Amino acid sequence: MPSAKSRPIPQWSMYPGLHEDVLVLLAEAGLHFDFHEADDERCIKAYDTNIMGLFTCRNDRCRTNAWTSKRIAIHIRMYRGRKYNARVYNQRCRECNQIGKPRLTDSYAERVAYRLKKWSGLEVETPKFAGKSKAPHRSELCEGCKAGHCSSAV
What mean pLDDT value characterizes the chain? Predict the structure, then answer.
């Protein structure tokens, strides 16, 4: 049986486990949404933005252990019946080109809740990222750019 490290990682992932964090932020505004488990394009609204996180290189022979990113592409979608989901796009290691899946910061819940509040007609303050990225965005390593869902893409 192959190890978890040897299984291929897809271009993007969804994080239903972070739904509770989103719910807490929505409850502050008196809103409630359910997580839409199905990955389908029949959404009524969609928005591309970026979040932050830490990637780990899965290649044991690579010298790069991990890297942080302040520009992880995320595609947020709202569905009928007050449901949502979000695709979080992976990135590739600049040393070995192995795809990595991020461990996300609070920016995921903040960005998703912000967008859902905005779509619900609430006036909300735009969330700010902590600090500015020192490195340029490398679109050849960004799966969000390849899929056309990275807001950093030119």
Answer: 90
Query: Which two structure tokens, joined as six digits, stand for 119?
Result: 């779509």
Provide the pLDDT for residue 65: 86
Backbone angles phi, psi at 123, to 5 degrees: -85, 120
Which residues are within 8 A (CB) of 64 and not within 5 positions of it... i.e. 6 or more apart?
57, 93, 94, 95, 96
Q: Which residues contact 149 (CB under 8 A, 6 or more apart)?
A: 48, 73, 74, 75, 87, 89
By C-alpha distance, which of 57, 60, 13 is closest to 39? 13
- Rg over CA atoms, the chain: 16
Condensed to tens digits (0 to 9), the pLDDT of residues 68-92 reads: 999 999 999 999 999 999 999 999 9
Taking the whole predicted model, whether its pTM rises above 0.70 is answered as yes
Cβ atoms within 10 A of the Cβ of 142, count? 23
Which of 68, 70, 75 shows the shortest CA–CA distance to 94? 68
Of 108, 115, 94, 80, residue with least CA distance to 16: 108
117, 78 Cβ separation under 8 angstroms: no
Alpha helices (H) along the chain: 19-27, 107-119, 143-147
